[in-house]
Design a protein that fits this description.
single chain; about 300 residues; alpha+beta; Cyclophilin; eight-stranded mixed sheet; five-stranded antiparallel sheet; 4 helices; about 15% helix
Amino acid sequence: MTGSLDIISVGAPVTVQDTGRPGQMHHGVPPGGPLVPELLALSNRTVGNPHWAAALEAFGRVELRARGRPLRVSVDGRIHTLADGESLLVPAPETRSVRYVAVEGGLAVPAVLGGRGTLLVAKLGGHAGRLLRAGDTLPLGAANAPASFQALGDTLDTAAPIRVTLGPDTRRFEPATVATLLSATFTVSASSDRVGMRLEGPALTHGDEGAGTSRPMVRGAIQVTLSGTPIVLGPDHPTTGGYPLIATVIRADWGTLCARRPGTPVRFQGVSLDEARHAWREFAERLGLGERHSP
């Protein structure tokens, strides 16, 4: 018996997200994935799901109801057990930008281009390619055995410096501007979303008038607009872009950055490619991120 999950009410954007659609950039489809990978993995593992299973990414409160079977539900790693027909009110995130709500068996929405996550800019994936709303019902996969998983979600340090590798366009900035990136304190703008995190702070002037050649982009790249505003590309970023890239946030720090709410300070720390690779190996091992299987 697989059952389903009813959405009773929502208070802010809520979507279905998984670990993304790797290998689709050449079709113009961004990789997607969770804003905070640590919390998605934590929530999934605590209800027996693989870390890549589809779950809810909620920017605000959401009320849910079990239908067709009892359910174990994880909210950022905290387990709730619901009887068939019982509801659960998940409060809005208080210290982080989002919450992850995983249900045993995972959300069995249709896979599109190798992923179940919602890509709002293309209106595909998730539930009809859109934000969830009251009255929606999501199908569930078969339940798995409970898993033992260390609660790592609370280790997110949203005050720690965010590590970056400089470039590839460092030469298009004055040395003083690069020094500003690594010494100034920025804050997360309220206009940030899954496409990109806009940062407020000192302008990173570069004199580029938009003449740069459009080229492939990656998550974590820090684009600098003509006005000098840095934008850190998120999981739903454009696949190409022309703004100069002053640096790139290392993969191990994606969640530490994107868990920050508007108004939260952000400082950057430069590291080498070898240090970035080592940080990712440690991160993947700590969270048990093995190879992702197709949905």
